[in-house]
Amino acid sequence: MVAEEQFEMYDDPFKMLILLATLVAEKQGVPLAYEKVPDYGNEVFALQNERFLYKKDGTEITWFEFLGRDIACSRDLSRSEYNRMFVDCMASLYAIG
Length: 97
Known about the structure:
The chain has 97 residues and is of the alpha+beta class.
């Protein structure tokens, strides 16, 4: 059995951010535009143009002009921590859990 800490959906945690933005756009019925991600917010996270906020611990990820360019995170997180955070966000998007 694989330990929970070893599970990683992607080797690059920022691909998870792009997946989350894609799911938000899909849920809103709009195509994902990397230069203007759709605004979304719930009790777990907020996604706005050039900014992602994980409300549970204040982790903020920003990018410049379009999603994927000059990405910076307010905290140093392990890949495992990124994955847990984004899985939590995806679950909240679909009211799972």
